[in-house]
Amino acid sequence: MVSWATVAVLAFAGALGAACCVAAARAFFGRRADRVAYRMVGAWAAAFGLTLAACLVAKDAFGVSAAALAAAAACALAFSLLPLAARWQRTRAMAAAVAYVQLHRLSSAPASEGSDAARLDLEMRCARLARSYDLTRREEDVLRLLMEGCTFSEVADELVVSVNTVKSHVRRVYAKMGVAGKQDLLDKALR
């Protein structure tokens, strides 16, 4: 005869396994698969694996009732925290996408008097930022190209250096300016 605790363990572990399968199906077969979806598959799989491990340890140490409690606790934590984590990651990804679009808007302006003025204004802002944050000339060039909307590989081509060198310059610019990414850099530069 199967006890209630065994049924509870199987139900909770099965719920986490099903959630993992649903996340995998959305990520691999959905129309809008992205990094967040793939990360959530990993998070659900980790929650499922940890739940199974916790149930086995609790069953060996304290019995089937303790395994049922461990499965219930793990299931409650996973179903409450993982959707919040997905939402937080999607918000961060959306902010990065907005920063990318804003950076590329600067470079996609049509060539006219207004865009020449905008380019001059951008160069003056970069020069001001370079003086304020003690950037080297090369770091100022990297900053200007990033603000124009260039990718790392485009910056590397323009400056005739490797992409890794550009990444090193970008890390130093971020550190000197006290920013965490392109969105922070754009906010600070456009202030």
CA-based shape: elongated
Tell me the structural class: mainly alpha
**Number of β-strand runs:** 0
Helices and strands, in N-to-C order? HHHHHHHH
Number of helices: 8
Transmembrane segments: 6-29, 41-59, 65-86
GO molecular function: DNA binding
Keywords: DNA-binding, Membrane, Transcription, Transcription regulation, Transmembrane, Transmembrane helix
Protein name: LuxR family transcriptional regulator
What this model shows, in words?
- It is a single chain.
- With 191 residues, this protein is mostly helical.
- The protein folds into 2 domains: 4-98; 111-190, Arc Repressor Mutant, subunit A.
- Helix content is 84%, strand content 0%.
- The chain has 8 helices and no strands.
- The protein has helices at 4-29, 35-62, 64-107, 113-132, 137-147, 152-159, 163-177, 182-190.
- It starts with a helix and ends with a helix.
Features of the shown structure:
191 residues; mainly alpha; Arc Repressor Mutant, subunit A; 2 domains; 84% helix; 0% strand; elongated; transcription regulation; transmembrane; DNA-binding; DNA binding
Provide a concise account of the structure shown:
The protein is mainly alpha-helical and 191 residues long.
Topology:
Elements: H1 4-29, H2 35-62, H3 64-107, H4 113-132, H5 137-147, H6 152-159, H7 163-177, H8 182-190
Helix pairs in contact: 1-2, 1-3, 2-3, 4-5, 5-7, 6-7
Keywords: DNA-binding, Membrane, Transcription, Transcription regulation, Transmembrane, Transmembrane helix
Domain HTH luxR-type: 128-191
GO molecular function, one term: DNA binding
